[in-house]
Every structure is written in structure tokens, then in C-alpha cells.
Amino acid sequence: MSRFHTYALEEAKITADREKKNFGLINEKGEEIGTYSGAQPRDAALKVANRGITSIVLREKGTKKLHYFQGKRELVSVPASAPAWIKEAAKDKGGKIYKANVEKLGTTNLEYSELERNPREMFKLPKSKISKK
Questions:
Q1: HSE-CB of 60 using CA atoms within 13 angstroms
Q2: For the chain, what is the largest distance between any 2 Cα atoms, rounded to a whole number of angstroms?
Q3: What is the Cα–Cα distance from 70 to 57, expressed in whole angstroms?
Q4: pLDDT digits (tens, 9 = 90+) for 90-100
Q5: What is the percent of the chain where pLDDT is above 90?
Q6: Close Cβ partners of 115 (under 8 Å, ≥ 6 residues apart)
Q7: What burial class does residue 83 get, using C-beta atoms within 10 Å of its C-beta: 0-12 exposed, 13-18 middle, 19+ buried?
Q8: How far apart are CA 84 and CA 90, in angstroms?
């Protein structure tokens, strides 16, 4: 086994051992419309982007923190090293699969724990990539 594969296996084990957090997907009206989990906000944002949502605002459950992402997904050819189940699923789409990509735009903190008490502007993507803490 190559050094790269050994390193990749170690990284996968570390990732699997990390504690998962829950994130609520917030629409522009300030309503929670879904829950996604991941060790990091990016993990949850990738899941959201893979469902075709581009403007992503996630609330970290148990905190007042909001994470802003811009997401996209595109059809790409299945890599040769992909598992058999992915290749089988891709046959319906001409040998292609969706690949998600997200860009973090920043974070901010809610003023109130209840979503409806916060200003609606907080639930829209920020114009710049500056993080507000």
C-alpha cells in the first residue's frame, strides 16, 4: 500500500470518529426547512448543495451561529476509481454523477434564540466574504 493510501485511510478514520453536529437549513423568510448533519458546517452545506439549493444559510443547532454558503452542483463523469454502486447509479445519467461544491461567505451570530425574533436580513446571503463574529 502506498504512503498516500495509508494517509488517506488514517484521515478517513479520524473523520469518522469526529462528533457530528446538526445544522438547520434556513430559508429567506427565517423558517427552518430541513436538518442536515456533519462534523463541520461545510459537510452539511455540501449535502444541501447536492440537492440543488444554491443560497445556503445554516444555523448550528444548540448555538446562535449562522453559516453562509454559496453552493452549486454539476454533472461530471464518474471517476475510474469510483465504487461499483456509484457506477451503477450513474448509468441512468449517461455515466455522470452530480458533484457539489460550496464556498463559505461568512458567519454571524443570531441576536435571539427564536428565529422569528431576528431581523429578516440575517437570513440572506451577505454581499461580501467578510466574516462577522
A1: 18
A2: 55
A3: 9
A4: 998 898 999 99
A5: 74
A6: 26, 30, 31, 32, 59
A7: exposed
A8: 10
Q: Sign of the CA dihedral 61, 66, 67, 73? A: positive
The number of residues in the chain equals 133
List b or e across 18-27, with b for residues whose CB sees 16 or more CB atoms inside 10 angstroms.
eeebebbbbe
Q: Helices then strands (H, E): number in the chain? A: 3, 5
Say what the pTM is: 0.79
Q: What is the DSSP string of 50-84?
A: TTT--EEEEEETTSSEEEEEEEEEEEEEPPTTS-H
Q: Is 16 helix (H, G, I), strand (E, B) or coil?
A: helix
Question: What distance in Å separates the CA atoms of residue 63 and residue 32, rounded to the nearest whole number?
Answer: 14
At 88, the amino acid letter reads E
Cα–Cα dist 26/32, whole Å: 4
| Dihedral (CA of 101, 106, 112, 115) sign | negative
The 10 Å Cβ neighbour count of residue 57 is 25
